[in-house]
Specification:
Layout (H helix, E strand, L loop, with lengths): L3 H45 L9 H8 L11 H17 L2 H14 L3 H18 L9 E5 L6 E6 L5 H8 L5 E8 L4 E8 L4 E3 L3 H9 L13
Antiparallel strand pairs: 1-2, 1-5, 2-3, 3-4
Helix pairs in contact: 1-3, 3-4
């Protein structure tokens, strides 16, 4: 027969263990998010602050307005400067003068073999992910990959164009470009699959990305019945 005191002790330990795990579920996402945001701000500050005159550095501003004895870290000035500078460049790029400067600069870059390729690739990726006029991906789908009978989540991209469209037209009537992300989404591959072989899902892009990143642990919540 078990000792009541031992059973009570085990019950207390089990309760503490459950509370600890529940606390981890609450604290871990908040802590990691705050850590990554703080680290990102520090990284941008380390990149931008050396370009700011010494009189306008955070330490100099704190010493001027609070006192020379004040000593605490100040982050965010570099982020603020970066945001203001980016908005200003975007506003300039919309005008005739800004477009002329960009066109002249790109003509100069096109004459540099290695830099031309690097700049073109980065520009294309940036336009794909940040251009509001076009979506990065259209829909989520299922496709047989990497072998028959097994399925993977894919993201429908744009239809094949140019030479790819001409070559694929000889193989079948309709192909779609599908990006298959690999867990934990640090890499992936682009596949051209017959559209008839795709199973289109109602799942949102964000939900599919979370499912892939988590390795199948985080599934989207089911929709409430109408």
């Amino acid at each position: 027969m078990s000792d009541p005191q031992t059973s009570r002790r085990r019950s207390i330990l089990a309760s503490l263990r459950g509370s600890f795990l529940t606390g981890l579920v609450v604290v871990l996402p908040i802590g990691l998010t705050a850590y990554f945001v703080w680290t990102l701000i520090g990284w941008i500050d380390a990149w931008i602050l050396p370009l700011i005159p010494a009189a306008y550095q955070p330490d100099a501003l704190v010493a001027h307005y609070i006192g020379p004895d004040a000593n605490f870290p100040v982050r965010g000035l570099g982020v603020l400067v970066f945001l203001v500078f980016t908005v200003f460049i975007g506003w300039m790029a919309k005008g005739l003068f800004g477009r002329s400067i960009i066109r002249w600069s790109e003509d100069k870059v096109d004459r540099m073999p290695i830099i031309r390729s690097l700049y073109g690739a980065i520009k294309q990726v940036a336009e794909t992910f940040f251009n509001k006029k076009e979506q990065s991906f259209d829909q989520v789908c299922l496709l047989e990959f990497p072998r028959e009978g097994s399925f993977a989540l894919g993201f429908l991209s744009t239809r094949p164009k140019g030479e790819l469209a001409q070559r694929l037209a000889a193989l079948g009537p309709d192909f779609s470009a599908v990006f298959v992300g690999l867990t934990p989404f640090t890499s992936g591959m682009l596949l051209f699959v017959p559209t008839k072989d795709l199973v289109i899902l109602d799942m949102k892009i964000d939900d599919a990305a979370k499912l892939i990143v988590s390795g199948g642990l985080v599934y989207p919540l089911p929709k409430e019945p109408a």
